[in-house]
Amino acid sequence: MSEKTEKKELAILRLLQKAGEPVSSLRLKENLHAMGHEVSERTIRHYFLDMDRRGLTKNQGKKGRVITELGLKELGSARIYDKVGLLAAKIDQLTYRMSFDLYKKSGTVIINISLASIEQLPQIVPLVCRVYEAGYSMGTMMAIFEPGERVGGIIIPEGMVGLGTVCSITLNGVLLAHGIPTHSSFGGLLELRDRKPTRFVEIIKYDGSSLDPLEVFIRSGMTDYAGATENGNGRIGVGFREVPADSRESVIALIQKLEEVGLGGFLMVGWPGQPLLEIPVSEGRVGAVVIGGLNPAAILEETGVKVKSRALAGMVEYEKLFHYQEMADRISSIS
Amino acid sequence: MSEKTEKKELAILRLLQKAGEPVSSLRLKENLHAMGHEVSERTIRHYFLDMDRRGLTKNQGKKGRVITELGLKELGSARIYDKVGLLAAKIDQLTYRMSFDLYKKSGTVIINISLASIEQLPQIVPLVCRVYEAGYSMGTMMAIFEPGERVGGIIIPEGMVGLGTVCSITLNGVLLAHGIPTHSSFGGLLELRDRKPTRFVEIIKYDGSSLDPLEVFIRSGMTDYAGATENGNGRIGVGFREVPADSRESVIALIQKLEEVGLGGFLMVGWPGQPLLEIPVSEGRVGAVVIGGLNPAAILEETGVKVKSRALAGMVEYEKLFHYQEMADRISSIS
DNA sequence: CAAAAATACGGCAATATTGCCACTTTATTA
DNA sequence: TAATAAAGTGGCAATATTGCCGTATTTTTG
Description:
Two copies of one chain form a homodimer. Chain A is α+β, with helices and mostly antiparallel strands and 335 residues long. Chain A is built from twelve helices and 14 strands. In chain A, the strands form four sheets. Chain A has a five-stranded antiparallel β-sheet with strand order 13-3-7-4-14. In chain A, strands 9-8-10-12-11 form a five-stranded antiparallel β-sheet. A two-stranded antiparallel sheet of chain A has the order 1-2. Chain A folds into two domains: 3-81, Winged helix-like DNA-binding domain superfamily/Winged helix DNA-binding domain (Arc Repressor Mutant, subunit A), CATH 1.10.10.10; 108-332, Alpha-Beta Plaits, CATH 3.30.70.1360. At the A-B interface, strand 9 and helix 8 of A face strand 9 and helix 8 of B.
């Protein structure tokens, strides 16, 4: 078996393991795509057949396949090597780990953290609100962390507060929970004209970078939220996603639901196989543009307020989030 | 013919065209690799055979193949679409366009431009020299452009000067001129300990980004030249390249020559198939680390001197370059 | 100049991937 | 409940890719 073959086989086993239930070749194909592997559905059955024979997987008849004991063992023995952590890996990880349930309105969501000193807060509040107001934010919810609190790997230092903004990867997780595997292609800087998205100015693929594209755009001072919020002409950070064409309607329905719970983040949804903002989309998929979660923090950098932002910082319970309009109140109770 | 097939075929034709002389399948394989296509040498002969039959290419016996009239026509009719310009495309382009001849010591080299105001110069000179001195620079040569001069697409504004530093892509071009196709994998931030490269802190692949990785690291303030030049502990921007394993010796010989003309930029050269700084290298290739051309400009950003840097800005004649020690003199004649 | 080494080729076969289709099992619908 | 639609599967064949090998030609070496 060639090296390439083995890699794909492992990817399949891994997905079977994560699923924990029988999976059909078609569903698996979409999941593989979300992880960046391009294969046809038939080829997967081809692999399945071979792995069935070797006892790594088992055909549960109509439902699909499950991984066997032997398969699990094989997985365990496979060396895990990820080298310099590319962002794509981290995205995958977090997507599977988060647990937000759209109907119960509970569970964890993925957030970004921006650290600001307490003195800066009065300056910050109106700016952040402006972005939320203009709708260039991932939903309407946010969180605040007080000194000493721990989120993901970060501990909020003395004299500072952590502003938590919902990360758009959360959307991946929600879609996944509804059986829609989402491929995150790249983060980009989107130019707006009269509040309408026109084209991508820059892009950085998630599987080609260890840095978060949005962080990069923000730190490089390439965003223009001031303009975007003022007259609709500016540049904002967004993410580009691909979902299976059949799921387009379900996605649209979910977007509705998401907005109701304050987690709306979709800016555009394309059509099957059709390019979206000049970005080609493979056949059988639709492209979608989601708003960058760090956006509210970006405007700070832009106007000279120094904050440290960290994308994909960790997860928090949905209950911990509140509507952005409450921000001023919440803050006053701290300082 | 599938879509994927067609793409590769076009890539082959394009390379044949550029070469302008008969090319064998083996050489072509390396060239394709440099452009990011992974195929076996046999497969290329497979394509050749097919294209021979269709009259797009012609077998010149022992020498290899050339493209025919019909092939050129086919190329012309192929839609050229490159979407949001990824850096990899730009690198290819410039590599083929530059013309520096190592023996004649003439022709064009690729440079980056950093714009600084004339008032800043006195501050700048010692810092830049420090980087050159420490050897964390691409060679020892640089250029200065006066107000009004035009380099690539940039015109130096009034009251400013352009500092031109040699871009490490120039090395690709030189190697190519000696028949060694170089694949540029990614730009990375390299951690130094006691002047020894230890590991990559961050990486951004050239084929996954429209921004130059080095520019990103610099603008994000992630570099640490102050440390690197002072005590050998710091972080500098570098590029990762792959060259065919057989050419390792030629490369080493060329490095020697390059240093003699002030264009030395190789920091490390690995061994066939062996990982270099934990970065895996495909079989039959050796990895190499080259110093980022923008490095001298990076220390400026770091110490708070505001300059605008633009990687891969354009090309200049080698004659226009001078040794960095002359910088002070050259500048005094301007201001 | 002859022998040896290197380079390039194409035939053949093995492997990998994918399309097409018939068959079976569920769901859904009339 | 019967008919129809949808999803999933494996067989078969076509295509794509690659490895292996023998032949031819050129280059290098002794």
